[in-house]
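mind reviewing both lines:
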Amino acid sequence: MTNIKNLDLNLLRGLHALIETRSVTRAAERLGLSQPAVSGILARLRDALGDPLFVRGQHGLMPTPRTLELSGPLARLLTELEALVKPTAFIPHEAQMTFRIAATDYAQTAIVLPLLKALRKAAPGIRLAVRPVGPHFADELAEGRIDVACVTPDMAPDTLRARTLFEEDYICILRPGHPAADQLDLDRFCGLDHAIMSHDGTRFRGATDVALDRIGRSRKVIATVPSFLVLMDIVRGSDTIALVPRRLTAGANGLVLREPPIALKGFTKILTWHERMQHDPAHIWLRDQLVRLAA
């Protein structure tokens, strides 16, 4: 009985080449080996399979019945092995799958919405499942519950892979006809009612207040909400003003935009994912789309 431990992939590839070429010389050329090396493979195959496998004929090597019996299954086996180790091609317009993305309210509008529009043309069979970024999003990435997360660098542990999406800054928004719409200097800015966004809807201070503290000024925050979109609606319907990421105002109606009268630090938005997805073709395509659209 043949011991499978005596057979390795190189021996099987050698047998396949010999079957197809019926020549040690041509088999050696196909395999990139020397003739003695192929002769050695044939000797090991004969010993392992207990059959001469080939005998010399007038026009080259003639396969024995045992070799002819092995020919078909061997060809199928090698084809299946090649398919097994070959990276799966990802064809966007043929794909039927769901990508799971964790993103903040802001990132859902600035990043996910353009992606969804692009997918309808490039990959209509792909669905998006979007959820808020939770405190344990890194664990969700590791466990495969989400594919990517759109966060800021301070949120991402060093164990995650990351690519920069864009740099963002802030713009001040007011309603059309607001008394301060024509001139928003620092005094008027500090004297107006402000609304801010905080993820849990509880904080009445933010980066703007830290910047004002440095110059000995302050403002009055009358509302905090967990959504930039709600924040923009508040501004549209009142004399309250707010600071929002500039990208959110692209195409937004019913708002007047003014540069803040104080220097404010912006932020970086990055895309993060787990190392195990680094070489997945579909995942690579998704990351490239997000980076391209963010640019």
